[in-house]
Structure to design on (72 residues):
């Protein structure tokens, strides 16, 4: 995070713009479940952009996102 975690959390809390979460897996340094749980609990995130290497990977990631109560 180029601005720092606290700076991004402050901007998200202000709800001044439509937000898309990007690079949520931090190049593999954060386990997928942990990363998605963190992003999904943030009020104001409208979309999550993630990379995938297969249809199965897309399906599994979408199911994980849905498991945190975010069905969009």
């Amino acid at each position: 995070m180029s601005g720092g975690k606290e700076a991004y959390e402050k901007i998200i809390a202000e709800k001044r713009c439509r937000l898309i979460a990007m690079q949520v897996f931090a190049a593999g340094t954060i386990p997928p479940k942990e990363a998605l749980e963190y992003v999904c609990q943030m009020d104001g995130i409208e979309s999550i952009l993630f990379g995938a290497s297969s249809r199965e990977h897309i399906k599994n990631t979408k199911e994980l996102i849905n498991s945190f109560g975010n069905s969009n």
Residues 4 and 10 are 10 Å apart (CA to CA). The first strand starts at residue 19 and ends at 22.
